[in-house]
Write a structure and sequence with these properties.
- The chain is α/β, with parallel strands linked by helices.
- It has 2 domains: 167 residues, Arc Repressor Mutant, subunit A (Orthogonal Bundle); 112 residues, 3-Layer(aba) Sandwich (Trna Endonuclease, Chain: A, domain 1).
- It contains 13 helices and 9 strands.
- A hairpin with a 4-residue loop joins β6 and β7.
- α2 packs across α9, α5 crosses α9 and α9 runs antiparallel to α11.
- The chain is globular, with a radius of gyration of 21 Å.
């Protein structure tokens, strides 16, 4: 995630609070046109994305050409778990052709790659066999879109291009409202990762040497950072309309225990704050941040 992209979006549009800023950035981040943040989100989508559909489509597909393969792959990445292998399956593209398409999308700047930090299992002796599901498991990298707007386009707009072209926006809007919160949640996670790298590293007077999400065959952790001091910071993000409670902390603890990790700092990020029970918890390693704390990312350098 590019801090300048987020900061510029904030100063161009001046949303009322950070919750609104993140919500709108997940859709319009990467578009240069200012938006009226006093208008409701559906009106803004129609005015800035659906009505000028033809213009956006021409701009987006100028580099992609007429090959529908790229659109299928980008759609698969936008709505899936972002793993390369599962994107190929979802798009029904063979690995060889999919790899060529992916490398092209990297070259033109539509995507970037997030490398897996999973360590391959080592066999004690050459003939050792693991369970079938473990033997079949392949370490897979994940993909990120260059801008939130591109991800929004391929998740919600491109699949409904026919009805949008006919100025029937209802099918697209119904689909959007069903998946809205989940969609914004990933952008919130990206911004929280940026907050750790850009703000918390300075606040804790440490340097991040490796950061991002962590995933393997069994466990997924939103945020995992290693620092120059040798500390391990583990975090979780929740973009939901209820306060984050102690149960979420226990779930995260189960994950790091499964990986035999011992975090020096536990970072929880919540859209709507935290339960009283969690706020009262006396855990020296625990740090709690709401969406409003991300305002630090809007300060121009």
């Amino acid at each position: 995630m590019d801090r300048k992209l987020f900061s510029d979006f904030f100063h161009r549009n001046l949303p009322s609070d950070m919750e609104q800023c993140i919500d709108l950035f997940a859709i319009f981040g990467g578009l240069d046109d200012p938006i009226n943040t006093d208008e409701d989100i559906e009106t803004l989508i129609i005015k800035h994305i659906l009505e000028p559909f033809e213009k956006h489509q021409k701009d987006i597909f100028e580099l992609l050409g007429d090959d529908l393969l790229y659109g299928k792959l980008l759609h698969a990445i936008s709505i899936g778990d972002r793993r390369l292998d599962s994107a190929y399956r979802r798009a029904r593209i063979g690995k060889e052709r999919g790899r060529e398409a992916f490398e092209f999308l990297l070259r033109i700047g539509y995507l970037s790659i997030e490398h897996s930090r999973e360590v391959p299992l080592l066999k004690i002796h050459p003939k050792q066999r693991f369970k079938k599901e473990i033997e079949r498991h392949k370490i897979s990298h994940k993909l990120r879109f260059h801008s939130p707007f591109l991800r929004f386009w391929f998740a919600f707009v491109e699949p409904f291009r026919k009805s949008i072209h006919e100025q029937n926006y209802s099918p697209m809007m119904e689909h959007f409202h069903t998946h809205h919160n989940e969609f914004v949640g990933f952008i919130f996670e990206e911004l929280c990762g940026l907050f750790i790298h850009e703000i918390l590293s300075l606040r804790f007077e440490d340097t991040i040497i490796d950061s991002g999400s962590y995933w393997d065959r069994e466990v997924e952790i939103d945020l995992l950072s290693e620092t120059a001091r040798g500390e391990l910071w583990i975090g979780e993000c929740k973009w939901t309309n209820h306060k984050l409670n102690k149960k979420e902390l226990h779930k995260l603890e189960e994950k790091w225990t499964k990986l035999s990790l011992a975090p020096d700092k536990i970072l929880l990020f919540s859209k709507r704050g935290f339960s009283n029970e969690l706020l009262a918890l006396k855990e020296r390693r625990l740090y709690l941040y709401s969406a409003e704390d991300l305002e630090g990312l809007t300060r121009r350098l």
